[in-house]
């Protein structure tokens, strides 16, 4: 199975405003390069600015911290991918509901990997905040989360 592509065309909604569509295009590009292609240089070149506030307590503020986290993660799990199932847009907020997997053979198997909802806030064409909610779908991911989820790297809170 090929690397998942975020298919914005099939996931977009007719009722989205021009702003919401623009925000969805921005996040789609960000996510595709970051989570599926692991093109960290592209992400840093196009999205690295100082106002990115991270609410996932295991990752520090700033896009550089996010990239650093994912570089290490994808060293351990180079087949990691993020298959977007739904996109929600509301003004300056975009939510992706996705299925993340660690191995190619697990793609499409909803008993493996992670069920993730990511929310981003966009201000003036820049991604300024990120929240997520992650559900482990199998025993390995529950164990991984237990073993790796304790270090707090920011003080922003989860809400």
Feature tags:
159 residues; alpha+beta; Nuclear Transport Factor 2, Chain: A; 5-stranded mixed beta sheet; 5 helices; 5 strands; 35% helix; globular
**Structural Rg:** 15 Å
Order of helices and strands: HHHEHEEEEH
Question: Uncertain segments of ≥5 residues (pLDDT<50)?
Answer: none
CATH architecture: Roll
Tertiary shape: globular
Care to count the β-strands? 5
What is the CATH topology assignment? Nuclear Transport Factor 2, Chain: A
Count every helix, treating DSSP H or I runs of 4 or more residues as helices. 5
Amount of beta strand: 25-35%
- CA-to-CA gap between the ends? 36 Å
Give a structural overview.
The chain is 35% helix and 26% strand. The chain is α+β, with helices and mostly antiparallel strands and 159 residues long. It has one domain (8-148): Nuclear Transport Factor 2, Chain: A. A 5-stranded mixed sheet has the order 1-5-4-3-2. β2 (81-90) and β3 form a beta hairpin. α3 (40-47) runs antiparallel to α4 (63-76). It is globular, with a radius of gyration of 15 Å. The protein starts with 7 loop residues before the first helix and ends in an 11-residue tail after the last helix. The model has no long low-confidence stretch (mean pLDDT 91).
